[in-house]
Design brief:
single chain; about 140 residues; alpha+beta; OB fold (Dihydrolipoamide Acetyltransferase, E2P); 2 domains; 5-stranded mixed barrel; 1 helix
Length: about 140
Amino acid sequence: MTKKQLFIIMAALLIILVGTSMYAMAIMNPSAARTSLTNLTPTPTGAVTPVKTHRLQRVVGMIRSLGHQILVINQVHNNAILIAKVNDKTKYKSPHGIITFSDLKVGQQVEITWYIANAQNPLTVLALSVVVLQA
């Protein structure tokens, strides 16, 4: 083998390795590329009535993304992610008064009052109120 052939083979292997690594990282963290989704207005889904199983909690954080009846929040105190579902009973407020889910924006700092609605899935909580804090 000549040096030129060896160089071509190593370059091809490097390209394959970099591509495979990027694919693996995309699979491991699928939400990293997401931002705000288009449908921001929650609609009642009906059937499930959550039963309050834990005490109310409050958290302050920054909205990372918005989805259909979902807020993803980066918590201020520990930078952990909180996934909060909303429903037709969730209240929304800002320093200027009552707002709706569609008024929320990625990057806003909010205080959420929530509880764990499903003991089998404690990572997703139900938001009772979302208060946009003054910037």
